[in-house]
Amino acid sequence: MSSARCVAQTKEIYDHLLEVPVSRDQLNHYRNVAEDARSELAATLVKFECAQSELRDLRSKLLSKEAFCQELKAEMENYKENNARKSSLLTSLRDRVQELEEESAALTASKIRTEITAHTAIKENQELKKKVAELDESFQKCLKENEENKSQVSKNCRQHEEFLAQLGDCLDPDKKNEKASYEDLILKLRELCEENAFVKGQIVTLEETINVHEMEAKASRETIMRLVSEVNRAQEKAASCTKEKGKLNQMVSQLEARISELVEQLGKESGFHQKALQRAQKAENKLEVLQGQLTHLEGELVSGDVLRDNLNFEKQKYLKFLDQLSEKMKLDQMAAELGFDMRLDVVLARTEQLVRLESNAVIENKTLAYNLQRKLRTQKERLESKELHMSLLRQKIAQLEGEKQVRSALAVERDEASLTLRKLQKKVERLQKELSVCREANTELKAKLADTSELKIKTLEQTKAIEDLNKSRDKLEKMKEKAEKKLTSVKSELDTTEREAQEDKERAKNMIEVVTSEMKTLKKSLEEVERREKQLVDFREVISKMLGLNMTSLALPDYEIIRCLERLIHSHQHYFVTCACLQDVPPRGERHTQSHLKLLH
């Protein structure tokens, strides 16, 4: 229809032109124009027919594609429904997996806590055993010292008896087998005075040993109190362990009830449980690393003394550095006037002055640089804006020139075939719009096909994930059995540790009782030694008073008392000899003997 209209319009225009009177030149010009228009018309008619055939093909393709699209839409809806169902299943399974992960984390944490408590209890038992061994050693040392003291006391008693016997022998050699009285023993002072110095030395040693024993007794008391406190702590920890054990038993029963409900879905979470076990292994490795760091830190603590020496050396270096600083800053006179204590303050004040001056200079330089940068930026922006303006003006000039040329070239052609071209352009635009619509529909169909392929891939992945989760469920069941076995082993280990702690506590109590009883016996023996020592001191004072020696002097030596006793015994023996001689002499020599006796006295 459109081609017939075009032909009719061209005929009308041709008839109208024939009616107008025209010259030959005009006719030739019109003929040329008509031939050109006819050739263009034929070409446009051919193009139009080709476009119509293409349109028909595209419409048939569109119909087939629409049917295929509807099928794809139905499949898409089915896939979407299946995807929604599987996504809901996945979300529910993920929630359950998270819950099981939390429960497994709680189980691992409780297991780690029980292991830590067991390790601490074992370490405390080992420390208690070490302390008990140390107490045994100290107790054996005390026993040895007590035996030595007893042997020394027995030796002193024997020496005292021998001394008394020797005194009796010296004074009365005739009465060797007879027992001397206490008054006679006071006179028999020679051997007592000789032994007094020896006994004094032993007394000093005994005092030292007594002081050492007292210090050791105090230390043993403190260690006993510490042991008692540590035993109480061990009891508290054992009670806390039992409480935690009961809590763990309750948790295990609850978890078993839950596990019986979730046995069907445990397989889906084995992978996560394996990851948790890997994390636990990593945590154990980190613990080992931290223990190594602890040992390293202990070594560093041991090397603290070396660091102190280094610090002293660095202090000397620091003082030298201060002297050099004061010399370079020309502060020697100021430091000497203010004192060496104010040297740091003077140096700090000088450095603050220098820093202020440098900061002021830096700030001025920064302000100048900032102002220059701002000026440069503004000038660059102006240049760029000018260049853009120039480029835009050039583009506008080129466009205007091109438009002028195009307008001048097309002005004639527009006048010749404006009507035909407008109609053909409209038809071509319609065809192009239809083509663009068809292309868009093709692209949409391709996108839908890609979505369907992606959905198929997702469904395959979901089926694979479901199979993997089923496999992991079996693995989780096996891991559950292993965890139950480990829990039973941990329970048995806790029971054994509790029994060992109770046995160690009873042993420590028995050892404390034995130590206290032996300490009491040691105190009694020390009191006896002190009493004997007091008796000896009183005996020495009585002898010194009887001899007329000055006891107010701080250090009265024993050899002086012995000399006085020897003189007294010698004079006493000489007196008895003279008395026996005087009994035989006649009465004339009585005056002479009395004067001699006076001299002797």
What does this structure look like?
- The chain has 601 residues and is mainly alpha-helical.
- Among the domains are: 1-77; 556-601.
- It contains ten helices and no strands.
- It has helices spanning 2-19, 24-171, 182-187, 190-261, 270-302, 304-328, 332-338, 343-547, 558-584, 590-600.
- α2 runs parallel beside α8.
Broad shape: elongated
Strand content: under 5%
Mean pLDDT reading: 71
Which structural class best describes the helix and strand composition? mainly alpha
Distance between the first and last residues' Cα: 185 Å
Low-confidence stretches: 16-22, 585-601
Main sheet makeup:
none
Indicate the percent of residues in helices.
over 70%
**Count of DSSP strands:** 0
Radius of gyration: 62 Å
Order of helices and strands: HHHHHHHHHH
Alpha plus pi helix count? 10
Notable traits:
601 residues, single chain
Helix-strand layout with pairing:
Layout: H1 2-19, H2 24-171, H3 182-187, H4 190-261, H5 270-302, H6 304-328, H7 332-338, H8 343-547, H9 558-584, H10 590-600
Helix pairs in contact: 2-4, 2-5, 2-8, 4-8, 4-9, 9-10
Summarize the model shown.
By secondary structure, the chain is mainly alpha-helical.
